[in-house]
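FW: tagging you since you asked about this chain on Friday. Here's the raw sequence from the shared folder, copied in full. Didn't touch anything.
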Amino acid sequence: MPIRSLLHYALEVPDQSVGQRYYRDFGLADEASRGAAVRLRAGRQSRESVLLYEGPRKKLHHLCFGATGEDFARTRESVRRAGVAEVDPPKDAPGGDLWLRDPDGNLVNVREEAPAAVAAEAPPAFNGPGYAPRQAVRGAPEKPNFLKSRDRRLAEVIWQIAQAANLLQRQFQVGHLDIFDLNSRERVVPFVCHHSAPPHALCAGNMTMM
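HL: got it, structure written out here
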């Protein structure tokens, strides 16, 4: 189809400042004004979406469509074959391109637009037979620093185990727990109980005491 897009619509309004404030509150952004029209656009677009012209009452000023290259030429030829006469652009509206009126008398503008540039996608980063774009690149995401292991010396590991065992023993003492059945040869604490409790185990463990 020759027509590719609706570029903008234009309204006549009695007070341009009121209309401008409304469409800004609605979510549109101001575009640099050229001529008598107030121009507004959607935030992510580079061209205006709404044009406001001053007039005695609110009404449609014109609709603007876009066609690219050969599509624009085909649109103009279709209009000519249908017997629709081209008209002059209204006052303060941009000239050129194609202006006409629909059966209800509404002004319609068709502009020749350059095709939108499409960003080239990067080739997929995976290897295959005869195709190896990814070389010496880690496929999985990097681990965060707190998950990365580091080399530990045996003396450091033994020291940390001893600190953990001593801390556990101090916690038992604070809680008035007695350590009994301590095997002095293997340095193993199999049972722990409260000092006022009968000599049965409240908890059992297999913690090697350093």
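FW: Residues 5-112 form a domain with the 2,3-Dihydroxybiphenyl 1,2-Dioxygenase; domain 1 fold (CATH 3.10.180.10).
HL: agreed, and The chain is about 20% helix and 25% strand.
FW: great, closing this out.
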